[in-house]
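Batch job 17 of 40 flagged for manual review because the log was empty.
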Amino acid sequence: MFKLGLVVNPFAGIGGALALKGSDGTETREKAMAMGAEQRALSRTHIALEVLIPLQPKLCIYTAEGDMGASISREMGFDTKVVYTCPNLQTESEDTENTVAALIQANVDVILFAGGDGTARNVSHIAGDTVPVLGIPAGCKIHSGVYAVTPQAAGRVVALMLQGQVVTVHDADVMDIDENAFRAGTVKARKYGEMRVPDAVQYVQAVKVGGKESEELVLMDLAAHVIEDMEDSDLYVMGSGSTVAAIMDEMGLNNTLLGVDVVQGHTLVASDVTAQTLLDLLQAHHKQYPEAARKLVITLIGGQGHVFGRGNQQLSPEVIRFIGKDNIILVATKTKLSELNGRPLIADTGDVELDQALAGFMPVVTGYHDQVLYRLGWQSEGGE
């Protein structure tokens, strides 16, 4: 079941039509409402969610009570779970932040929020780069790059994710302006942060030959991205397969194609390790470098989509838990992902609870500074 987080700022954009140059602050909102302002955020959320109506059996909307999302979700017939209730009649910025925190705790796949740049700032303050987010444009100020071009476009991007399509993810700037200065005729915009934003799939990239991916060039680009991000103090567990082998080759290190190797500081620490040896190395590294990270570079089996449980049993549940989901670097070419025809990646570690914990949309490195979001599912007797 796809878990869609939804946050609506019901007061977003109410000052726009009244030339109030924004809606930040209780005083401005009260003035706008007294002047007969129309609350457009809910209607624009409705437009985005309409796209998802045919996919209702596949998703559940996690949101806040009332006009922050639950009312419109229920009205449109979506399975709805409330994770936060606003204590006051008029919502404030902290209510947006509290809702986002609750959505992250609920492990949603993506957060869809309706608002303007002020709302984006609130979402960013809590979400950061922990979960993909996408904005439904509903505010007076839309300077941030985290918004879809239209509410309907926002719905379409989420629909692509639901249907298992390859969706590109990129870091987008969260921008906002000083409303008081804006009302005085001065535009002072500045960057407040970045968030991970899913976008419509784009297969066109620089590394192409004859209109198709050149496997060799793509792997070189992919390897360059991973190597560039490597920290000397971190320990890297290098999984099996030709894609990971390309990264090892680019570093000039011997590689065990059908085994697991360990690297630190661009130096080979251990080759073809067993599960126990690997766990011992991870624990020793943690003891020596407690502030450093232990990371896993892994790919999938082409055509099948298995990430864990096929040819890499050295990556035991204990090893994977020790490393942690956030430290898994998944690498694959877009061609290999496309060959799955929308089927999810598979985690079959032998530990059902771990498989479930690993499930969800994960970033996949597909080239140099190029990533996409792809769903990692889990297997049980009843299916996914």
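Reviewer: the log was empty due to a logging misconfiguration, but the result itself is present. DSSP finds 13 helices and 18 strands in the chain. Unflagging and moving on to job 18.
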